[in-house]
Amino acid sequence: MMQLAQLKEALSGQGVMISFTGAFHHSIIEELGKAVRHYLESDAAAMTSMMDVFSVYIEQAQNVRQYTNAMEDDAVAHSGIVVIGKQEGRYVVSSGNLVVREDGEALVRRIDELKGLDRQALRKAYKTQMKAPRAEGSDAAGLGLIDMARKASAPLACNLDPQENGYSFFTLQVEI
Amino acid sequence: MDDLIIEATTSTPRIAFRAGTGALTIEGESYPDNTVVFFTPALEWLKAYLSGGGPAVLTLNLAYMNTSSVKFMLDILEMLEETHGAGGSARVIWNYDPENERALDMALEFQEDLTLPFEILPLD
After folding, report:
1. CB-side neighbour CA atoms (13 Å) of B47
2. d(CA B112, CA B97)
């Protein structure tokens, strides 16, 4: 029998209230989004906090969807996970999926660059990126990362865990 | 030219562009699955309409936009800005829920780089 009680306990133990793993269809992102809002409303979050958590969730979920969708390898396509919860009084939105190692390294570099920026600098970076010509791939995640960094209450945290076949598992955590 | 009316969905806003009056509205939330596919008809309609020199009043009420949508909104606003710059009549009215600070922030950030008339109004 699947050990669901333990699985649930492991999630609750980390403050996870909502989680999803599987193929990230757009309809799933929409429905989970509604669940995120209900959760925040019942937690009496202020509207601004709710919109920030919701937007960070959407950016992460859509990034996972875009990346995993573009990959032909089934293992990557189904590798996505997103969780929303609370740790030490702050809302946390985290996501992860398999990435080609170089893509993961590029993401880690971008996130590192953002770490050193204060409010003003992030705002400026956002404006610059907003006006940059539209590009596919990693650039598509560019404005999203800056947006999340602006809404976060701590620098973005990420992890890259090497796997087989030139893939790594990339995890992003945003505290709001 | 025909009006462009696209009804809202959970993740896409209602778009109502009226050729007769130049009254353009976009309202709801925007996080489409494919932003290019969603916004292209609106951008093309607007380009065609503005080339006819007609006045344009864009009324917005967007509770949330993902970052991909922000880029397209910028494109739309820049088209109106260009019309204004060339002596045409184009203005923006951005309505927002006073409890949604983020909607206000977004409006202010767009407004600061544009010169066309741009009002930001809280809704009751």
Report:
1. 7
2. 20
Contacts of B70 in chain A (CB under 8 A): 130, 143
Residue with tokens 């951008």: B43
Residue B11 sits at the chain A interface (C-beta within 8 Å): yes
Name which of B12, B8, B86, B3 is nearest B48 in CA terms.
B3
Residues of chain B with C-beta less than 8 angstroms from the C-beta of A34: 10
Q: In what order do the strands lie in the sheet with B56-65?
A: B4-6, B14-17, B23-30, B56-65, B90-96, B118-122
Q: What is the DSSP letter of A137?
A: T
Give me the residues of A, 85-114, that contact B with CB < 8 A.
Answer: none
Neighbours of A61 (CB within 10 A): 26
For residues A48 and A57, the answer to whether their CB atoms sit within 8 Å is no
Q: Which residues of B touch A52 (CB under 8 A)?
A: 102
Contact A39, A134 (CB under 8 A): no
| The pair of three-digit structure tokens given for residue B56, joined into one six-digit string | 């344009």
Q: How far apart are CA B53 and CA A63, in angstroms?
A: 39
Is B70 an interface residue toward A (CB < 8 Å)? Answer: yes
**pLDDT tens digits for chain A (176 residues)?**
889 999 999 999 999 999 999 999 999 999 999 999 999 999 888 899 999 999 999 999 999 999 999 988 888 889 999 999 999 999 999 999 999 999 999 999 999 999 999 999 999 999 999 988 766 544 445 899 999 999 999 999 999 999 999 999 999 999 99
**Cα A105 off chain centre by:** 16
- Chain A nearest-CA distance from B20, in A, is 31
